[in-house]
Amino acid sequence: MQAYLISDGEFSTKRQIELKDILKGYLAACNFSVLEKILQPDELAFCRGCFDCWVKTPGECAMRDGIVEINRACMTSDVVVYLCPVVFGQFSANMKFAIDRWLPNMLPFFMTRKDGSTMHPPRYPDYPAQIFLGYGETLSESEMQLFTDINKKHRSSVSVILDRGDDEEICSALGGCEMRRAGGVL
Amino acid sequence: MSESIKNIVLVSASPKVDQDWAVSSFLAKRGELLLNDKTLDFKAIADIAIDVKTIYVRSSLMHHKTEQAFDELQSADAIVLIFPLYFFCMPAMLTRFLQDFVVKYLSATHVASVYAIVNCGFPEPEINQEAMRVVECFAQQTGRVFLGGVMIGGGGMLIGAQAAPFMRPVFEHVDDLFSRLKRNTLLEQQDTMLITQIAPKFPKWLYFVGGNSGWKSMARRNKLKIREIYRQPYQR
């Protein structure tokens, strides 16, 4: 089983290193081989909303930078863990560069969820489990709630963990996360 | 009587290459026109003028002119962030811009307010809610006052169908926001936060039919067969 761990090289704090150790230890104990990606500033272009990944090079971003390997690693892993600095209650810039360019992994069309909201259909029969571990030095409760809502409110098969400085709490939360690929709607 | 100047900065943050088809740029231009329209001035004010600037984030980043843009943003009395929804929050491009801005200027040095216009391609405007909260978070962390804005659904048809009657309510909401911003700025008055939401008065099913056939038409123009849209390049 493969886990893909994505972190932000721009926020390489002491706590990030500790969290990374916890994650790697936990994943290894669960028999995952861990593939790691550290995102650096200017490594990826930002999504320019051209939609070529839907209508010109379906399933792949037309900008052939590091995202090709990132999306390939994401889609071929069992679980993807985003070790994510929380900035303004959302993802840090480097993480958002990668997340926005996840778009090729979905289909362009519109469909309606059971709750009546709109979504794009999945491109693949199944997807890796996704875990977003948010951290930051002075995160307020409202920022944590916002980070959770951004990730969970509109998507399924996503787990969110917020770091409050308690290693045991992180391990316990990881224990409650889905770690297998899942099919169905995103 | 000497005239004081209030700075309004519109931040147009669509990442699209062709800005002529970017809703954010389109709305920023509309805002500039409204804010500069002297007939909309409030009569009681004789000694305050407004200066309106637009920062095009894409251009600013691509041409390495963020320093100048950050200075303008820091000196603003009112900021309007205008952007499309990407993965239920700000696009990466705007995130990079604002993250770097707060590295240079940690917080505001004078009273300043922040507004936002967020548009999404899905018909439901309420999907923009988390993005609006992100803007509020930015405002709070930089010592500015968040005063709300407009959440727009069905943004995909906003430019193409701009003259259609069903689009009128959308523009009314946008115009109301710019009018409120201008009034607040000129009168220097305290206002409360107000977020409105609007989508074109257009059937959702028809929006889906139009959108879905649009994707297929674009693929055909790129010489793809319809089945090729469903490619799965990354296999285990």
Beta-strand share of residues of chain B: 15-25%
Number of strands of chain A: 10
Query: Which CATH class of the largest domain in chain B is shown?
Result: Alpha Beta
Reported for the largest beta sheet of chain A, the result is: 6 strands, mixed
Output the CATH topology of the largest domain in chain B. Rossmann fold
Radius of gyration of chain B using CA atoms only: 19 Å
Low-confidence stretches of chain A: none
Q: Please give the share of residues in helix of chain A.
A: 25-40%
Distance between the termini of chain B: 74 Å
Morphology call of chain A: globular
CATH architecture of the largest domain in chain B: 3-Layer(aba) Sandwich
Q: Return the CATH topology of chain A.
A: Rossmann fold
Give a concise summary.
The complex is a heterodimer of chains A (186) and B (236). Chain A has 186 residues and is an alpha/beta fold. Chain A is 31% helix and 24% strand.
Describe this structure in words.
The complex is a heterodimer of chains A (186) and B (236). With 186 residues, chain A is of the alpha/beta class. Chain A has one domain: 3-Layer(aba) Sandwich (Rossmann fold). Chain A is 31% helix and 24% strand. Chain A contains six helices and ten strands. In chain A, strands 1, 2, 3, 4, 8 and 9 form a six-stranded mixed beta sheet that branches. A two-stranded antiparallel ribbon of chain A has the order 5-6. In chain A, strands 7-10 form a two-stranded antiparallel sheet. In chain A, helix 1 links the parallel strand 1 and strand 2 (33-39). In chain A, helix 1 runs parallel beside helix 6 (167-175). Chain A is globular, with a radius of gyration of 16 Å. Chain B is α/β, with parallel strands linked by helices. Chain B has two domains: 4-202, 3-Layer(aba) Sandwich (Rossmann fold); 203-236. Chain B is 39% helix and 19% strand. Chain B contains seven helices and six strands. Chain B has helices at residues 23-36, 57-62, 66-74, 92-104, 129-141, 168-187, 204-221, and strands spanning 4-12, 48-56, 78-84, 113-119, 145-152, 194-198. A six-stranded parallel beta sheet of chain B has the order 2-1-3-4-5-6, sandwiched between helices. In chain B, helix 6 links the parallel strand 5 and strand 6. In chain B, helix 1 (23-36) crosses helix 6 (168-187). The longest helix of chain B is centred in the C-terminal third of the chain and has 20 residues, at 168-187. At the A-B interface, helix 3, strand 4, helix 4 and helix 5 of A face helix 4, helix 5 and helix 7 of B.
